[in-house]
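Appendix B. Extra example for self-study. Work through it before the problem class; the solution is given directly after the inputs so you can check yourself.
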Amino acid sequence: MDFLLLKFILNRLWQAVVVLVGVTLIVFVMVNVAPGDPVAVMMEKKADAATIERIRQQMGLNDPLYVQYWTFLKNSFSGDFGNSYFQKLPVRALLARGFAVTGSIAVGVLLFSIAVGILMGILAAVFRGRSADRLIMLVSTLGMALPSFWLAIILQLVFGLWLKVLPISGLKSFKAYILPSVALGMIYAASLARLTRTNMLDALNQDYVRTARSKGAGETAVVVVHAFRNAAIPILTYLGTLMKSILGGSVLVETVFAINGLGRLLVDGIMKRDIPVIQGCTIYIAAVFVLMNLVIDLVYGLIDPRIRAAKES
Amino acid sequence: MGNTEIENAKIEKRLPASENPVKFTSFYHDAVRRLRRDKIATVCFVFIVFMALTALFAPLIAPYDQSYQDIEAVMSRPTPKHWLGTDEFGRDILSRIVYGARVSLAVGIVAEAIAITIGVVLGALAGFYGGKTDAVISRVIEMFAAFPQILFAIVIMFVFGTGVINVFFAIGFVGWTSVARVIRAQVIQLKENEYVEAARASGGSNLAIVARHLIPNCLSTIIVIATMEIPADIMYEASLSFLGLGVQPPQSSWGEMISVARRHLRSNPGYSIYPGIALVLTVLAFNLLGDALRDALDPKLKNL
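Solution. Structure tokens for the complete assembly:
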């Protein structure tokens, strides 16, 4: 392995660690700025002042802030966020449960938006300027303006209450995944369609496409093998951001479809001021995103030396 | 500014487009002219002005006050008295949508102003000084960008409490990182220009160069980003209020209306549908205007 590559990897790892520490600092500061005494919240106003004081002492809440932060940082990196005030369960267990649910929705959303978005984008590029292209662009423009929670309600109304073909809450069957995936995935499918179209138009104008055609390659082969493979790189880069948005946006469809995922866990934690849950959710979600970006960057760095150079400068 | 525009219009009338003497037009006049020719952009602009006037003069336009309760018509379907029906307290839905426009547009403007201020200052500093300053600011940007935006806004609402002013700050705080990234990249490019060297040679301080030369040269980018981010901000406000963490009743906001209406989906579906249509149309108008502005002012941002 050459020295530059090693330097790039170490540099990128170091950046990720710095960002993760920063993330814990942001969460720690925010939770400490928030009004209200966590112990009083935890005891639900049933305890007297002396008991509250004793518990504060036990939890280390009377220690200087930097000591508290150091403990918090160590615990965060080992994945220990303490117990939920109300569910009397380790936050780690709640996170694992929530992530399994949100993860399954995210897979549905990704499948829907990638399949529909990329297919529509390719079709629009191939039929550029014709009515198919115009229709796809019109629908995607509209799709980008649809708030997921409102679309979710409209879908519930049409497919759940009027046509009665799809369940409107929970995740009990495969069919139950359809509405949440479409509601949250619509906006991403729309933006993927536009992104794919732009990059496909670019790729279809390249010399290698002309060469492939002149060699006698069929139109499908030209579009899929030659043009799309080259248009795919910017689309892949977009997927990292997409995953982050899906993790965040999931809270809205989870609310509409009464699904207990990570987003619901966070919002319920906030409503009840359940601080360990809030800390756990935010740090966990941010860490997933930072690590995902790290992997994407490392893979690109390994594949493409140009990206390595660009990241360093 | 007005005079030159009129002159340009006269010239335009006299000469076909191909012979239009470009030397008479400044960059921004040119952009405005291109925008006026764009029919979609014009329609969107007119719609946004219409919404802004609606928001501004809500008390004059709305048939009823946002909290007036018609106890004889609770949860009514659309009638001549209540064009879009009423809600669970007998409040007029149309009036509440009109008042809700105030929150949405105010969030778009104020939150984006906060995001732009933080983003431009930090982005320009990082781009201009480079080195350690850049490394520190870039890491801070990454830290804040590591949270999904809506979740970050939710946590900020937890810290500051609900209410419309806090919504402004939460959304502004969430949006600055993307502004900072774009401005940083642009300043890195711009600072190589000769006018920066000239300003330095004539004794301009670093601060003066950033404030008088670099930031003004980013203006078209800033306008484009602002127009493209405003609809996102409007969506975030609606989402926060939908989750019960944003604007609180009795003040009306489209997100808050949809959230309550959801419980009455069977008995009064229109109650969920109408505020959503207002939201979609507003977001759509800003999105399309943003696209047109980008094409007119800064085609380099095409892949943003």
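Self-check: Chain A touches chain B through 50 residues (CB under 8 Å). If your reasoning did not lead you there, revisit section 3.
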